[in-house]
Design brief:
CATH architecture: 3-Layer(aba) Sandwich
Distance between the termini: 48 Å
Domain Transketolase C-terminal: 81-201
Oligomer: single chain
Domain Transketolase-like pyrimidine-binding: 2-66
Helix content: 25-40%
Order of helices and strands: EHEHEEEHEEHEHEHH
Organism: Shewanella dokdonensis
Number of domains: 1
Keywords: Thiamine pyrophosphate
Protein name: Transketolase
Strand order of the largest sheet: 4-6-5-8-9
Shape: globular
Number of strands: 9
Structural class: alpha/beta
Radius of gyration: 16 Å
Amino acid sequence: MKFVASHPGLDVGPDGASAQCIEDMACMRAIPSMVVLSPADAYEITAATKVLANYNGPAYMRSGRSPCPNVFAEEPHFEIGKGYVLHEGCDITIISCGVMTHRALSAAKALERKVSVRVLHMPSIKPIDREKIIDACQETKAIITCEDHSIIGGLGSAVAEVIAESATATPLYRMGLQDVIGRSGEPDELATFYGLNTESIVQKVIAINKETNHD
């Protein structure tokens, strides 16, 4: 059985809290053997759909409702359980999924002269790419997760589990819905309200970079 959700996170916008699914990845991650995916754009959704069509097992994939800038110029290679470094950096790593990846990339590019930011796109939430997360812990000073989802049970929690089990000392900061109920508004307005827009990511990176340099 394959499930595809068309109204994830704050993307549902004006329909408001009653229609906003900000805990779906947490619920699906808890189901035994369930693959959980959150592609970045239409090209990657196409690639992931083809992979899922040939996958033998249960899977859940987020798609999207509102227009979203493309991260990829063409259909990318997609593999369940793999993450992809879309922007190289050695100071801070942003691990993102779904709509947050284009915002993370915009933030990394805006910071190029100030902070060296690695963007690790993680479309596969379960199974997750443990190797690339551990590499990021060893090669950069801090990890920031960015997700259009509650910080509880989704990407941030999955990354925290990997870091804890690998016994690294790399600090982790989770950007997402902070254990709150959503509200009505256009997706971009809500991203700004909840501190999930590009500028919020930029400010978070700057603050963390200062903190880690001070330490």
